[in-house]
Write a sequence for this structure.
């Protein structure tokens, strides 16, 4: 079963992901962008570059996703493992969709759908996506606005894209209130995972 954690920067995804490793020691824990490949290295370099072309950046992320699928996700699922990913394709749809919408020189009718269509032929849909819901102002404050993706106005566009994704696939998403205490968030996520695992069996 493939389970993904999604949400704005500052929503607490990575903290939850790290905490779940003690509760699910036999699961495969992974993340996007990857941090163990040259594809991921290229993505992280683009994140730090305020002048990176958004279309070029999208395809760096997409290459990293494709490699992640073939190297980690697909082999783990073939073994029957539980896979928990900190960010996955929905992050690409929400974030790069927002980036392309704000960019000059890229005339796309619906940037989010453009990004989704690129992934559709080869990506794998998660069985469950846990969305840590947080308003953009709080997210930017928590994240510290350390890079171009952590500004409140931009994060509001990202949040709107996440809402579109949830609306189109409501059975896959479970919304968790990320304004709660970290312990409460972790318990809600654990409950969602347990329910999904039972249904999956």
């Amino acid at each position: 079963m493939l389970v993904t954690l999604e949400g704005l920067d500052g929503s607490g995804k990575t903290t939850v992901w790290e905490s779940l490793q003690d509760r699910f020691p036999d699961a495969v824990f992974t993340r996007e962008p990857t941090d163990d490949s040259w594809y991921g290295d290229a993505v992280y370099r683009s994140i730090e570059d305020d002048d990176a072309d958004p279309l070029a950046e999208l395809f760096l992320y997409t290459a990293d996703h494709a490699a992640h699928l073939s190297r980690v996700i697909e082999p783990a699922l073939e073994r029957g493992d539980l896979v928990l990913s900190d960010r996955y394709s929905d992050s690409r749809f929400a974030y790069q969709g927002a980036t392309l919408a704000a960019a000059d020189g890229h005339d796309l009718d619906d940037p989010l759908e453009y990004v989704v269509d690129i992934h559709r032929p080869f990506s794998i849909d998660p069985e469950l996506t846990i969305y840590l819901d947080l308003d953009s102002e709080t997210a930017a404050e928590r994240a510290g606005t350390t890079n171009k993706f952590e500004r409140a106005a931009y994060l509001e566009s990202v949040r709107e894209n996440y809402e579109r994704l949830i609306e189109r696939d409501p059975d896959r998403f479970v919304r968790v209130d990320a304004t709660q205490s970290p312990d409460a968030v972790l318990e809600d996520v654990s409950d969602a995972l347990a329910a999904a695992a039972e249904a999956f069996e």
The CA atoms of residues 167 and 173 lie 9 Å apart. The mean pLDDT is 92.
